[in-house]
Amino acid sequence: MANWILLLVALASLNLSLCKREPEYFSPRSCKELMERYKTEEDGLYYLTSPTGVVYQTYCDMTTAGGGWTLVASVHENNLYGKCTTGDRWSSQQRGSPNVPDGDGSWSNTVTFGNAEAATSDDFKNPGYYDITAENVAVWHVPNNERVGRWKLTSFLRYHTESKFLRSYGGNLYNLFKIFPVKYNAGSCPANHGPSVPVVYDVGDASFNHKLFGPHVRGETEPGFITFRAINNERAAMAICLGVKPKGCNTEHSCIGGGGHFPEASPRQCGDFASFDWDGYGTNAGWSASKQVTGAAVLLFYR
């Protein structure tokens, strides 16, 4: 009888010990970890976990240039005629007021919005934007309102960096834009532009990229780069120049995500896609961008 009692006590003690153990959770921090640690190879939507335990869904590109790319944000122009109004989350929803020089401040804050599946239909920003430590970025241009399963098929321009430049800027765009704030009067052109980083094209090429912008823009830019925090003649700041490096100071015609106040013809320059329609919507003439690039969401990835 005593032996049975000792056995029961031992089993109870073992069960209690097992209950106290931390369970192993499937909780990758990035698509790169998901690929390397869990051997995931297919493109698609997956769940990731932030360091603070926030679980969120995003898209993983597991096949381009070695895979492991995490979608962290998308910039979608919901209304090019609604200059810095509702929906312009990457620039300003306050009409570009001079009293709010950094607009909504989304490039350098921890506010999140949207959802991954609707990233071509609305702005999107997840915790990975500021939580993931990365080395490179990739950019996809995908027509507005495309379903997630067709993104790669319908994207007409895709490019990525390979220089591991983010190592010098805190490992992500959140930290980069702390160094180069996207706000009015943060500096002058051309002295205070942020970094211009060479890109490798996965779909399209530098020539095609350049032709997506009007002839005046092509005369003031060099293709084959992604540029961060470019400032225009009027000291307004744009976050990302799409596949180009500015040589002039009319950056509002090829760069997205302008922060805060735009003095020239304000708020005509203002908005997530700034002045892509300066000489008419989608005309690809003068300073205007093509309809193709104007009507597409810009998807931003880390690896």
Structure report:
With 303 residues, this protein is α+β, with helices and mostly antiparallel strands. It has one domain. The protein has helices at residues 2-20, 31-38, 128-131, 151-154, 173-179, 206-211, 215-219, 291-294, and strands spanning 44-49, 55-61, 69-75, 124-125, 137-143, 157-160, 196-198, 200-203, 221-223, 225-231, 237-241, 244-246, 255-256, 296-302. Strands 1, 2, 3, 4, 5, 6, 8 and 14 form an 8-stranded antiparallel beta sheet that branches. Strand 2 and strand 3 form a beta hairpin. Residues 87-107 are annotated as: Disordered. Residues 22-104 form the Fibrinogen C-terminal domain.
In short:
The protein is an alpha+beta fold.
Low-confidence stretches: 4-24
Shape descriptor: globular
SSE topology string: HHEEEEHEHEHEEHHEEEEEHE
Q: What's the domain count?
A: 1
Rounded to the nearest angstrom, the radius of gyration is 23 Å
Supply the helix-strand structural class. alpha+beta
Number of helices: 8
Largest sheet: 8 strands, antiparallel
Share of residues in helices:
10-25%
User: Would you report the number of β strands?
Assistant: 14
Strand percentage:
15-25%
Mean pLDDT equals 91
Span between N and C termini?
63 Å
Oligomer: single chain
Pfam families: Fibrinogen_C (PF00147)
Keywords: Calcium, Disulfide bond, Lectin, Metal-binding, Signal
Protein name: Intelectin 1
GO molecular function: metal ion binding; oligosaccharide binding
